[in-house]
Amino acid sequence: MTSHQPIMTLEELRAFFDREFPQIHEGGRTYHIEAIGPLSATMRMDYHDRHLRPGGTISGPAMMGLADLALYAAILAQIGPVALTVTTNLNFNFMRKPDQRALIAECRLLKLGRRLAVGEVSIFSEGSSDIVCHATGTYSIPDRR
Amino acid sequence: MTSHQPIMTLEELRAFFDREFPQIHEGGRTYHIEAIGPLSATMRMDYHDRHLRPGGTISGPAMMGLADLALYAAILAQIGPVALTVTTNLNFNFMRKPDQRALIAECRLLKLGRRLAVGEVSIFSEGSSDIVCHATGTYSIPDRR
Amino acid sequence: MTSHQPIMTLEELRAFFDREFPQIHEGGRTYHIEAIGPLSATMRMDYHDRHLRPGGTISGPAMMGLADLALYAAILAQIGPVALTVTTNLNFNFMRKPDQRALIAECRLLKLGRRLAVGEVSIFSEGSSDIVCHATGTYSIPDRR
Amino acid sequence: MTSHQPIMTLEELRAFFDREFPQIHEGGRTYHIEAIGPLSATMRMDYHDRHLRPGGTISGPAMMGLADLALYAAILAQIGPVALTVTTNLNFNFMRKPDQRALIAECRLLKLGRRLAVGEVSIFSEGSSDIVCHATGTYSIPDRR
């Protein structure tokens, strides 16, 4: 059985993300892949003006974007830079108002199949153990021949 | 039984959105509330550089943000400018690659309760009847005394 | 472009369901495929003791089972009796307490791809137009060579 | 801050379930609340004929019913026998075919608010650490005055 160690290094994955998702850094680099491991990834989103609503609360779409990126990072770390891997389903539960600080997204893959990958993401305010947002997502992996 | 006509006019709703979500217009006004009706709303998102991935495909998070805004518009049109209404759950199915043109989000409320509202959104590429993304969402309506 | 007419007749689909899901009729025949059409199906679940909680309310799992069957019916009517088609994702919003009468599930397919099918189901109490439960689901279609 | 210890004993919870959900034992007692803890519960569903499809595979609806019961058990263990607590949303990812043996559902509450509770459930075939089905659910807690 496979050990599920990533087949990309952190540097390779970050470089791939910079090429594939340059628009996430528009206005400043706020998304960071912090770590990857067996069937897992950790991503950070800085507390930055463009992710906020008036009053300073981090917006829902900013959190949804972070979750999607974290899942994508965890999957690609495992299968390599398969650029046509696409999100087919995402489900979000928003549970607590985030603090006015960075968000940390911890992603764990639940299944890595030949055609579909499924993972979950827990998003926390940096330094807190209370989940702000929890998501599960399914990604379709294209045929590779 | 109520007729479910909106209690806000389109202009009032647009003004409310400009005050509550000014960050969505950063880089240019690309989100437009096109229409509101009984338990429904239509929102448009222009095809704009900041919503795109390399190659010109509209990003998943751009579509998720559009769906969230459209649902919020439909709910607030019905209950008035209750600013503390928050998203508790969103579920997305991404089904087709969007065209390189504007997106139209058609939102229909399925339930408008005292504490929770539930709606669905179908997102189309402008001019097409094939659903690009379908979402359902639940929003928590705060106690109003 | 295909007309999306079902490729199975109602009788063929009912016979297939009787072979594939005999356990749903345990205790009495309460599930009925009422109609099939282009990318659609209607299923009925009788108001029967084994679907109820004390006090006579139809249980959540009974509704979830109905939604899954209705989606499966709509998909198989389109693609034929492909028995290894399996549910990969289901999302339910429970919105109103059902009446103490039969349930009608109206299913509409949103996407019918080569590998994945996505549909939505609206469940009503017979005779009512208020949605009791709304669901979306994704099904994986096996390779057929 | 609360320690989140359950406020019901395992025996009290089992007795409550027997009163509230007698229909789950129709045909034989196959659902068992195995354990409860802080914001958690474990439930077992025996491998029994009425949960199966031809060929002996456990049905999707049987797993969905198990997840719903496990979440309900975890919530009620924390808040007491509040019978009008109802499911508002459930999202399921079916990831592996279950073995032909009992299922174990491990439930963890992610949020326990005044009005809403959110939890996740991981379902395993007994003796295996591969997740068969993962679910998240939201429950509405009625006002208690």
From TrEMBL, chains A, B, C, D:
Keywords: Hydrolase, Membrane, Transmembrane, Transmembrane helix
Domain Thioesterase: 55-128
Keyword presence, Hydrolase: yes
Residue intervals passing through the bilayer: 69-92
Domain of life the protein comes from: Bacteria
Protein's UniProt name: PaaI family thioesterase
NCBIfam families: unchar_dom_1 (TIGR00369)
Record InterPro entries: HotDog_dom_sf, PAAI_dom, Thioestr_dom
Cross-referenced CDD domains: PaaI_thioesterase
